[in-house]
Amino acid sequence: MPKAVVLGAAGRVQPRDRDRGFATDSTRLGGIGQPLALLLKANPLVTELGLFDIVNTPGVAADLSHISTPAKVEGYLPPDDGLKKALTGADLVVIPAGVPRKPGINAGIVRDLATGIATTAPKAFILVISNPVNSTVPIVAEVLKKHSVFDPKKLFGVTTLDVVRASTFVAEILGDLSKAPSVVVPVVGGHSGVTIVPLLSQSSSPLPASFASADLDKLTNRIQFGGDEVVQAKAGTGSATLSMAYAGAEFATKILKAIAGEKGIVAPSYVHLSADAAGGEALKKEIGQDLEFFSSNVEIGPEGVAKIHPLGKITEYEQKLVKAAVPELAGNIEKGVNFIKAPKL
Ligand SMILES: NC(=O)c1ccc[n+]([C@@H]2O[C@H](COP(=O)([O-])OP(=O)(O)OC[C@H]3O[C@@H](n4cnc5c(N)ncnc54)[C@H](O)[C@@H]3O)[C@@H](O)[C@H]2O)c1
C-alpha cells in the first residue's frame, strides 16, 4: 500500500520516430506519462507502480524498475487484460493518456479508461490530466455513475500546472526564483483559457506595490495561456509535458500524503461540488451559478475531498474573471456530460 497506476505511461512515439525505427525505443523521454512515472517511482510513498499504455510500457517499466526506491513496477499493454491487470489493487490512478489538443479523441480514450476503473478499481482516487479537463472530468463522473460507483470525493481534475505556473511567474516578478516553491496562489475556476482564474490578491507573497493594472492583465493572461508559450517554443512538436509531469506528481504526492493520514492537505482541484455538500453550495452562491464542477481550494483527507473552501475575499478584477469563466465552464461541463449520451466533443 499504496499502489499508484499511470494510464498513458509511455509518452508519445511520433510518426517521425517510427520512420527512423525508434518506435520501440522505450528510453526516449517524451510526453507526460514517462516523466510522471519516473517521479512517482522516485516517491518513497509509492510501494507499487502500475503502468499502462497502448505502446512501450514493458520497456518503460523495466527501465524504471532498476531505480533503487521501494515501488515495484509493472508495465502492461492492452492484450491479455492489461488494463485490468494494471488497475487491480490501485489506490490512485493518474490519467495522462490522450493526444495533446485533440479533445474529441481524448474524450473517447478517457471514457474507455474510466470504464476500466469503474469495473476494476472503483474505490481508487482518480486524477485526470487528459485535456480538456473541464470536460474529461465530467466524462469520468458520468461513466462512474453509469456503473453506480461514483464517489465525488475521489475524482479530481488536475489543475496543478496552473498553480505551479502562478507560483513561478510571481517569484520571477519578485526577482527571486528561490521563492517559487513556497509562493502559494490559489487558481480557481477551470483548466483552460479564461476559465483559469488566478487569485493573485491572495498570493502568499504579495506582488510589488508598483504592480500596475496592465501588469496584472499581463500576468493573468500568462497564467491562463501558459500552455501556448510552451507549444510555440516547442515549434508545434508538443505541449507542456515536463512541467505537467512535475505538477501531476506534486498533486499525486498530496493525495498519497492524505491517504497516509497527514492532516491539513489543501490544494486547488477541479471537483464535483457535491463532494462537500455544504462547501459546494456556498461556492455556488459565491460564483452565482449552479455549476456541477468547479476548481477551488480543496482539503483532502484519507477518504478524499473533506472540504471545499470558498473563494473568500476577492477583488473586483477577480470577480470579473470569475464571471467570464462561469458560462464557458458551464458549456464545457455540458459537453462532457453529453458526450456519454451522444459521443461528440
Ligand atoms: N492537465 C494539464 O495541465 C495538461 C497539460 C498538458 C497536457 N495535458 C494533456 O495530457 C494528455 C497527454 O499529453 P502528452 O503530451 O503526454 O501526449 P503524448 O501523446 O506524448 O502521450 C500520450 C500517451 O497516451 C497514450 N495513449 C493513447 N491512447 C491511449 C489509450 N487508449 N490507453 C492508454 N494510453 C493511451 C499514448 O500512447 C501516449 O503514450 C493530452 O490530453 C494533453 O492535452 C494536460
UniProtKB/TrEMBL annotation:
<feature type="binding site">
    <location>
        <begin position="129"/>
        <end position="131"/>
    </location>
    <ligand>
        <name>NAD(+)</name>
    </ligand>
</feature>
<dbReference type="InterPro" id="IPR001557">
    <property type="entry name" value="L-lactate/malate_DH"/>
</dbReference>
<dbReference type="InterPro" id="IPR010097">
    <property type="entry name" value="Malate_DH_type1"/>
</dbReference>
<keyword id="KW-0816">Tricarboxylic acid cycle</keyword>
<feature type="domain" description="Lactate/malate dehydrogenase N-terminal">
    <location>
        <begin position="30"/>
        <end position="157"/>
    </location>
</feature>
<feature type="active site" description="Proton acceptor">
    <location>
        <position position="191"/>
    </location>
</feature>
<feature type="binding site">
    <location>
        <position position="106"/>
    </location>
    <ligand>
        <name>NAD(+)</name>
    </ligand>
</feature>
<dbReference type="GO" id="GO:0006108">
    <property type="term" value="P:malate metabolic process"/>
</dbReference>
<dbReference type="GO" id="GO:0006099">
    <property type="term" value="P:tricarboxylic acid cycle"/>
</dbReference>
<dbReference type="GO" id="GO:0030060">
    <property type="term" value="F:L-malate dehydrogenase (NAD+) activity"/>
</dbReference>
<dbReference type="Pfam" id="PF02866">
    <property type="entry name" value="Ldh_1_C"/>
</dbReference>
<keyword id="KW-0520">NAD</keyword>
<dbReference type="InterPro" id="IPR001236">
    <property type="entry name" value="Lactate/malate_DH_N"/>
</dbReference>
<dbReference type="Pfam" id="PF00056">
    <property type="entry name" value="Ldh_1_N"/>
</dbReference>
<dbReference type="InterPro" id="IPR001252">
    <property type="entry name" value="Malate_DH_AS"/>
</dbReference>
<keyword id="KW-0560">Oxidoreductase</keyword>
<comment type="similarity">
    <text>Belongs to the LDH/MDH superfamily. MDH type 1 family.</text>
</comment>
<feature type="binding site">
    <location>
        <position position="53"/>
    </location>
    <ligand>
        <name>NAD(+)</name>
    </ligand>
</feature>
<feature type="binding site">
    <location>
        <position position="244"/>
    </location>
    <ligand>
        <name>NAD(+)</name>
    </ligand>
</feature>
<dbReference type="InterPro" id="IPR015955">
    <property type="entry name" value="Lactate_DH/Glyco_Ohase_4_C"/>
</dbReference>
<feature type="domain" description="Lactate/malate dehydrogenase C-terminal">
    <location>
        <begin position="159"/>
        <end position="339"/>
    </location>
</feature>
<comment type="subunit">
    <text>Homodimer.</text>
</comment>
<dbReference type="InterPro" id="IPR036291">
    <property type="entry name" value="NAD(P)-bd_dom_sf"/>
</dbReference>
<dbReference type="InterPro" id="IPR022383">
    <property type="entry name" value="Lactate/malate_DH_C"/>
</dbReference>
<dbReference type="GO" id="GO:0005737">
    <property type="term" value="C:cytoplasm"/>
</dbReference>
<protein>
    <recommendedName>
        <fullName>Malate dehydrogenase</fullName>
        <ecNumber>1.1.1.37</ecNumber>
    </recommendedName>
</protein>
